[in-house]
Each structure stands twice: as structure tokens, then as C-alpha cells.
Amino acid sequence: MQSDSLYEPESEKAFLGFLLLKGADNLIDIPVAPEDFYVDLHRRVYRAIGDLVDKRITIDPVSVLNFLKENSLLKDEEKEFNYIYSLYRDTVVTQPLAYYAVRIKRFSERRMYSKILQESLELIRKEPGDNESVFNTVEKNLTEISRNIDAKGLLPVSSDKAALSDYIMEIMKNRGQITGLRTNFTKLDEATSGLKEHELMILAARPGNGKTTFALNIASNVALVYNQPVVIFSLEMSRIELLLKMVCADSQVESMKLKKSELTRADAPKLLESIVRVTAAPIYIDDSGGLTIDDFKGRVRKLLTTEKLVLSLWTIYNL
Predict the structure, then answer these.
(1) Disulfide: which of 192, 209, 252, 281 matches 205 by Cβ 3.0-4.6 Å?
(2) pLDDT tens-digit profile of 258-310?
(3) Are 48 and 67 in contact (CB under 8 A)?
(4) Where are the domains of the chain?
(5) First-to-final CA distance of the chain
(6) Which residue in 197, 200, 201, 164 sits closest to 181, CA to CA?
(7) pLDDT at position 83, please?
(8) How many CB atoms neighbour CB 47 within 10 A?
(9) If 0-12 CB within 10 Å is exposed, 13-18 middle and 19+ buried, where does residue 64 land?
(10) What CATH number does domain 175-317 carry, 3.30.60.50, 3.40.50.2000, 1.20.120.10, 3.40.50.300?
């Protein structure tokens, strides 16, 4: 049974009554869908109003009822006829249409959150699988809620005026400087002006051309030189293999010497010093393999929550 706290009938009635009384001229600006209504008849009435608007037909009780009847959308014709006329006749509108729209959307979202949380609780109770699988599924559900809360939808470009102005002013303030995250590769930093938040960079080349080494060098530079947290997902190499590559790069000892057991007495202290530096850096490696996009997101979210980090770079080897 639906809780009263997840449904506000007065707002749904006032919203539809407003449209039946005053028309739907401003409906295009209202971010409400038929599915946002809790009452089934309200959903059908709103869907009819939307279709009539698309056909440029005047909105009133007669046009709405005719549409519902012609499209076989009336379930109890006499009762629903009377109800729709009551929306037109008895509804007292005291607020702008947008006010009721916000209320309807808010309660619709609450019902969705409630449904997701109930499904998550049911999964926890009944799922026979391992705890990590359950955790990832529940966390994915909670992320869906968070994404919905943060979703901005379609916005006019006028809302970006301040952000664009701030960006230009920041560029002017730092003219000639690298504005993003430095990789310590001079040419790359000059070409990109540093790695930027929300940007995706794909490193592609034929096998054997040094993609892994280059990517690891970028990651280790960000962590070692600039002390910025880095996450590395390896779908092929083990964490030890990756760390040995980083250690060799940092110590400037050729990795082939390590593979072929050809280390000299001078190499050992360099490698040991690098091990201390690399293992002290804010680098987090997951070499599980076979991970999905949701696995990546879930593990990073867990890391950020438990370690209280602001992550600077993700590296995934290899897609």
C-alpha cells in the first residue's frame, strides 16, 4: 500500500484543473511526465492533454474526454466523466502551474527512491550470492538515486554565463601556464594544457609500442611527482608486474635486466630506493580482471568513501 508521504493528491488535481481551466500554453516548459502522476486517471488525462497540445487542439474537459473515449482510455466512463468535470468545476487554483509541477515531480521521485530502496532491501534478504555482488548491486541502485537527484536535464545556455566567464578569467589569469593536471611529459602537457576533470583520454597504438609503459609513467608521475591520488585498473597484468614496471621507470633501471636476472650491484640500491618511493605514493591498483563499468564505478566510490580522497586520475589497462 502506497504511503501518504509519497503521494500528494491535491497537487495532482490542482495541476490538471489549472490546465483544464486556463489552457496549456506554457506546458512545454513544465518538466512533468504522465508517469509522474500517482493516480492512474491523472496519468491518462495528462497524456491526453499532451497529445491534444501536439495537435493544436484547445484544452478543455470536452476535448480531453473525447480524446480518452476515442482512444479507449476510459475504464469507467460515467464515473471518470464526472471526475474530470469535477477537476474543471471544483478545483481552486492558488499557485502558478510550475509550483504544482515541482510538487508532483518531487513526490514521483520519492516513490522511485522508495521502490529502489525496497528492491535493494529485498536483495539483501534473499540474494544467495557473495556479499561483494550484493554490495555492488545495492551501491548501483543508490548511485541511480544520486544521479537522478543531481540530474540537470535540459538547461538554457544562459545558465552557463557565469561558469563560462569564470573559465575565461581563469585562463587569462594563468596565461601561458598549464591549467590542468601535469603528467611531467612536457610535450603532452603543452599539447593538452594538462589533464582536465571529466575528460577521457584514450591511448592507442600497435602492440609492442610502449602503451603500458607510457600510461604507467603518466600515472606514477601524477602520484610521485605531484602527490595526487591515482587509481589503476589492470585487466591483464598483475599488480606486482605493474609495480615492477613503475619501480624500474623510477629507478631508471631497464626492466629487461630484471626479467633476465642481469642486475648489477649498482642496480639493487636504486631499485630498493624506488620501491620505498613508489609504495609510499597515493597509488591504488586493482588487478581483478573481468570487471564491468559498474564494477569500476563501485570500487572507486568505495575507495573515495573509505579513504576520503579527491581522485585525480583513473587509468584502465586495457580496454
Answers:
(1) 209
(2) 888 888 889 999 999 999 999 999 999 999 877 877 778 778 877 877 777 66
(3) yes
(4) 1-153, 175-317
(5) 46
(6) 197
(7) 94
(8) 18
(9) buried
(10) 3.40.50.300
